[in-house]
Every structure is written in structure tokens, then in C-alpha cells.
Model the fold of this input.
Amino acid sequence: MAMTSMRRAVWGLWFGLLAACGSTGGSGGESTSEVADGTCGIAGCDDSVTTTVATTGSGEGGSADSGSTGGAATSGLPCDVADVVERNCLLCHAPPDGLFGAPMSLASAADWQVPAITAPTNKVYELAAQRIDDPVSPMPQNMVMSDADKATLHAWFDAGAPADEGADCGDTTTGGDTDGGVGPDALPCEPTHTFVAGAGDGSGDAFHVPENGADNLYMCFTFASPFGTEVQGTAWAPITDDERVLHHWILFRTQEPQVDGGAGPCNMPSDAVFVSGWAPGGQNFVMPDDVGLELGGPDNYYILQVHYHNVAHHADALDRSGVAFCTTETPRAHTAGVLTFGTTSIDVPAGATGATATGHCPSSITSLLPVDLNVLASFPHMHGLGRQFDTTVTRAGQDLTLVDVPAFSFDNQVSYIHDPPFVLKAGDSITTTCTYDNPGGTPVHFGERTEDEMCFNFALMWPIEILPPQYRICMTD
Ligand code: HEC
Done:
């Protein structure tokens, strides 16, 4: 393809994001990415993320090595409420104690009447009434509850969240093992490499998630490359160990030396690239037979960033979560990597609500594509002021949604799987719109620091090999 035009699109680009990752809270890792993966965000996720199964008494939430997302049937809830809760809450608020950092179960009517853990002067249902409308950290996380579902809950909350012990809701469960096939054992191949959280002291022990001070904790676990040569990933699976406190993780790779087996606060190198990630509901990912994911080689280092919520102050939270890869040293016919969409022209005035930044990958550029590009996943990325994100593809006057995140939250960043892949065609124009609220007194612009903003969609696609690395950004303002 004619690279001069592609260069025009790349003009003004910025390549090399710094992750200004604080030690706790608020700031995660950022990356440019040559590689992204699929974790399945709950919203926008085309493969079905079922929420609940009909078994109670699933034992201690803590052992979690079964990888189960908790069998949860509701009890004592009115049927309309049970239906809403199962679909929107029980993935995380599963009995007996909640999963993935959710500090309590919401499965029984009694669960809603006890004092809230972080605000004991409120009952759980009173806090829930606030959190489902909270603009900054809404419940449920990672997905948008319909207005009808919200109205059902509010009506129930207004009445004091009464139990309906006689309720016979029939089979309201959404069926099946929520994890059907998630985890290394469910891979169609034998994993060759894992990157997991650890104590960081050379002992090989699990990471002890502190009982106190870990309400919102980012930890980075670092690794020297385990690869003797350049490899491709063929499939990978999340390892979800202590599901009581594990909230999400992202694996990055970098060229900057890291301590092998290290554990500490996150100081993400500026060249870090996104490799793969997981959030509740995330699935295994198997590449098409003729496509390999760029994973790097001996010169790389890897950083596993894990976000923990130990809001419930578990004293015995020991975690070995992370990711297992099947790899191949024999390159496959095609390579999957990331093409970045978005913009660096960001101007969010002080006090603004709903300020937008828009970036285009114009049809004048994509018309040069010699083949279709198969987009496997999108990883939207903004910083703390980001509220909404979408990427729209315009083809022959028609708008097609690539990804739409109406309730973006920095602490809940996930990638969105396109299954089947979204096929980008020559002549498409791709528009990414980021929406921000800025409660602060100073304007915010594009930048690398946590207090600056970003607006990128790191889209994983193949065959990325048709684009040399320097052309893997397509954005004009
Ligand atoms: C994808 C996981 C997930 C889903 C789905 C989810 N939550 Fe949560 N919830 C969490 C996490 C993690 C926390 C703790 C961190 C926080 O407060 O943001 C939490 C905290 C809460 C709290 C505050 C508890 C306290 O004591 O501070 C309430 C209330 C709540 N959730 C209600 C709900 C309701 C109601 C739903 C469904 C409509 C829901 N959540 C769906 C993960 C989830």
C-alpha cells in the first residue's frame, strides 16, 4: 500500500504512552499496544456471559481455585427483582461473600438488609440505591443496566427492599456453569508459559493481598522474558486464583529491564504494550488456526498489573492469579497485533461535563488496504475523566458500531471481544469519540501523566503484518 498517505494519517501521532501508575488506587497502566487480547468485557461482549447458576451454598468464596464464578440463586427476592439482580449483580455479588472484589452477596433478601460494609449506617439496599446512579463508580461495573431494570430496583428500594418469601419464580436462572470452559484446563492446548502474581521475594509464594489498605490496590508483578526466541501466542486463559479479591489484570510487555519475579507498585515504562487482560466474565481466547498473537521474544520483559479490591478485609487473601499461554516458535501464516485509533487532540475545559474528543481514520487511508482486516478485540483507553467511549465505522454512508462503552470507568478497563471478528474494509472511515467530565478547576489535555487524558482504541486485528510497525496508528484530528 502507498505508505506516503499512511504517513499523513500518522502525522501528529504520538507513539509511546507512559503509564503513570500510582502505587495504589486511581491510576493503572497504560500502553501503546502492538498486541492486545481479548478479555471479554461484560458490556459489548458478543460471546454470552451468563451470570448465574442455580446452586447455593457454594462453599467458601475464597478458595476459588475451581474458577467458579459462584453458583448463585436468589432466595426471598420478589421475582421481578430476582430477575434483575441475577442479570446485573450476581456475577460478582455471588454468595456467600461476593467475588472479584465485590464485598458481599446480593443473592438473598436478607443480604440487602444488613449494614453496608463500607458505610454501616446504611443498609446495603440504601447504598445500592445510590451506587446504581453513581456517575463515577456505578454498579453494576463494566456494563450498563437498562432503565427498566433500574426502575424495578428503585421501586423495590423505595418500598424498603421487602422480602417475598413465598415467591416462586420458576427457573429464572440463566443456566449453565458460568465458567463453561474458562481457565488453563479448558484450553485446547497445553500452556507453555504462565505469568502469575507472587510474593516477589524469590520464594515462589503467593502474593498476600493486605487485609488493610487494599480497598483499591494496583500491584505490578515483573518478569524477565521466559522466551528463548520470538514466539506467538496461539491461545491463552485467565488464572483466577483468589476470586474474593481479584478485580482485573492486564499483562504488558516492555523492553525496559524488570526484576524477574518482582512485586511492587506500578511504574509502567513508557514503551509498555498491552498483551492481554482479564476482567470478570472474561473467557479463554483461542486464535484462529492460521493466526498468531505477537508476544515478543528474549529481549522483552513482562509486567502483570493486578487490581485488587479487599474491601471486605479478608486476612487470608493469598493470590496467584495471572495468565497461561500456549505459544509457538513457528510463525503462523498471519499475525495479530494492534492498530491504534483515537486522537491526541484533547481539550477538556475546567468544569466541563460531556466534553468530547474525536479522532478519525479516514477512508482516504483505509482505501489503500490491500485486504480486509479482521478485528478480534478493542481495548478502549482513557484516564480518570473518561466517561464514555465509542468507535464507529462508517461504510457507504452507514454507521456500524465497533465498540460502545456508555459507562467507562478507569478502574474497570477491559477489552471488548468482537465475535465474530469485525471486518474492516477498504474505504471504511473509523471515528473514535471520547467523552469526559472535568470537575476540576484546570483544563485537561492529552498527555502521559495520570492527570492528563488519553483517547485510544487499541484494536487487535489480523493480518497486521500488512502494516509495518511504524504504520500501526491511524488517526487524523
Ligand atoms: C463485575 C462485578 C460487579 C457487578 C456485576 C456488580 N458489582 Fe457491586 N461491587 C463490585 C466491586 C468490585 C465492589 C467493591 C468496589 C467498589 O465499591 O466499587 C462493589 C461494591 C458494591 C457496593 C458497595 C458495597 C460497600 O459496602 O461499599 C454496592 C452497594 C454494590 N456493589 C451494589 C451492586 C448492585 C446493586 C449490582 C447489580 C445491579 C452490582 N453491585 C453489580 C463489583 C460488581
